[in-house]
Amino acid sequence: MKPSDAWLDRFVGMLYYITDCDGVDGKVKQSLEDFVVEEVLLDGQVVPTSITKKPLPTIASRPGPWVWLIVEKRGIDAITLLLLLSKKLGVGLRDISFGGLKDAIAVTSQIISVRGVSSSDVPSELGRDVRVLGVFTMDRPFTTNDIWGNEFTVRIRGVDEQRVENIQCVIEQVMSRGLPTYYGYQRFGIKRPNSHLIGKYILLGDFESAINELLAHPYPMEPPRIREVREFIARTRDYSKALELLPRSYRYYPERAVLKHLASNPRDYVNALRKLPRELLRLYVEAYQSYLFNLALSERIGRGLPINSALPGDLVVLLDEHGLPTKHVIHVTESMVDKVNELIRIGRAAPVGHLLGWYTKIPPGPQGDIELSVLRREGIDTSAFRIKSMPELSIRGGYRPLFVTPIIKEVKVQGDVLTLVFRLPRGNYATVFLREVIKSHNPELAFT
């Protein structure tokens, strides 16, 4: 257990590393090709990018109202991709379904399903940065349940050649102690790591503060021109002029949509937020839920408690034959703890923490005590997740394993370049493993 001194780590709730050996330093994402993310289907097939040139998965088409697209995107985020697909294919956002969000600063591949279009109407390119590598007619949407996870091919450049041997120490400790299932930087943003703050304000019903955080709070990693626009908004509240100053780019779609409403209705903050897609608003609320999870997981690590074995009073989820969580969660008692830990050892169970929501009931036990202490410090109650002013954003709650074991497929060092190929089950973040490897004092620079 090693505390992090990086401000970004602390800002998003990742207070500790699980490994205590030094990192190798270096940077990722020096080019898009340095970070490749390929979806892994439940049957083990990989959805390839054009970079790795793996074969396309074998998928049998079926008559139906959906088409499944094998999509490769380069350097764009998930929300931009959804907006682009909606515009290019002439469908609503609710007609688009996918298994998981992918990194923005990367080359990524995934299957996306679209309802209401013909396979013959789908072009091979949906824009300069989005290619369609395959099209299949299907009778149902593609969902999270269709994927196992992702395979990552990552180059870390500029590693300290005197410390590169530390990679073996990191891997050995991760495999023996478990990799914490923190929500990674992408969940919150790296250049603007504030999605959880917007979510918290929405939960508290403080919609003016949510708007101000979205529009008027500049962050150091943003371009100077954008920081100036945000400072202008904070100083003047001249939403009409700000709309003129902000670039017309998909990147600033949320700000522009909100500004357009506020230009005519300067204090109508709730309906200004409602100009954003419900999926994006929900991401803000879920980001705060993720932040609370990170804080609780950090506190467990900080207290020296294990994350890859259960203690009496813990909650444990049973895993299926693929090692993925089922809906079966049990409360561990003293009499069953040895049997439960044997299930964990063979990959059929994992300790969990709560993804807090209005339905969450926190039982007594070490993890429950930690979660209650986090809520007290944050000054919030689980009932806040039932949002009266925006009930469509209310969150029931759930569970998340406290650890995962990466599948390491390749480790290669050439000079000051370290290449890692590894797999993680769905819902887990490559950057959480990579931060253990690198241990940067400035992750906002190392991961952009």
CATH topology of the domain at 35-149: Pseudouridine synthase
Q: What is the β-strand count? A: 17
Content of β-strand? 15-25%
Global Rg: 22 Å
Give the N-terminus to C-terminus distance in angstroms: 26 Å
Q: Tell me the name of the CATH homologous superfamily of the domain at 35-149.
A: TruD, catalytic domain
Biggest beta-sheet profile? 9 strands, mixed
Q: What shape does the CA trace take?
A: globular
How many helix segments? 15
Residue runs with pLDDT of under 50 for 5 or more positions: none
Task: Please name the CATH architecture of the domain at 35-149.
Answer: 2-Layer Sandwich
Percent of residues in helices comes to 25-40%
- Average per-residue pLDDT, rounded, comes to 95
Describe the structure.
- Strand 7 (125-127) and strand 8 (130-138) form a beta hairpin.
- The strands form four sheets. Strands 3, 4, 5, 6, 7, 8, 9, 16 and 17 form a nine-stranded mixed β-sheet that branches.
- Among the domains are: 35-149, Pseudouridine synthase, CATH 3.30.2350; 198-278, Orthogonal Bundle (Hypothetical Protein Yqey, Chain: A, domain1), CATH 1.10.1510.
- The chain has 15 helices and 17 strands.
- With 448 residues, the chain is α+β, with helices and mostly antiparallel strands.
